[in-house]
Amino acid sequence: MIYITQLVYIHPGMESTFGEFESVALPLVDRYNGKLLLRIRPEENSMIAGTLERPYEVHLVSFKSEADFERFKADPSREGMLHLKDLSVRKMVLIRGMAL
Fold first, then answer.
1. What is the pLDDT along the chain (100 residues), one digit of tens a residue?
2. CATH code for the domain in which residue 11 is found
3. Which of 4, 64, 91, 97 is most buried, judged by most C-beta within 10 A?
4. What string of DSSP letters covers the chain?
5. Residue 30 lies in domain
C-alpha cells in the first residue's frame, strides 16, 4: 500500500476550473485500487504553525501498489482533462509515503 499526499495551490479565480478537473480525476481513483482518504480545504485560521503557504486543498489517497498509481495517472479520461489542471494549478507538492 502506498499513500500519496498532495498540497494543491491554484491560481486565484481558477477554483471552478480546478473543480472541473477534479470531477473527472477523483472518481477514477477507485477504478485503480485506490481510495480517497481525505480531501481538505484548509481555512486561514486552521494553520497553527509552519513555513509553507496554505494550500487550496490537501488530498490524501492510497493505492494498493505503485503500478496502480501509475495506471491512474495514465487513464485516458484523466489525461484528456489535464489541460484544466494545467490552467488552474499554480503548484503542487506530492509526498509519497507508507503506513508504519
1. 999 999 999 999 999 999 999 999 999 999 999 999 999 999 989 989 999 999 999 999 999 999 999 999 999 999 999 999 999 999 999 999 988 8
2. 3.30.70.100
3. 4
4. -EEEEEEEEE-TT-HHHHHHHHHHHHHHHHHTTEEEEEEE---GGG--S-SSPPPSEEEEEEESSHHHHHHHHT-HHHHTTHHHHHHHEEEEEEEEE---
5. 2-97
Calculated CA dihedral for residues 89, 92, 96, 100, nearest 10 degrees? -100
| Residue that has been written with the C-alpha cell 486561514 in this structure | 44
First to last CA, the chain: 11
Q: Which residues are CB-neighbours of 96 under 8 A, at least 6 positions away?
A: 2, 3, 4
Residue type, 10: I
pTM recorded for the entire structure: 0.90
Domain count, the chain: 1
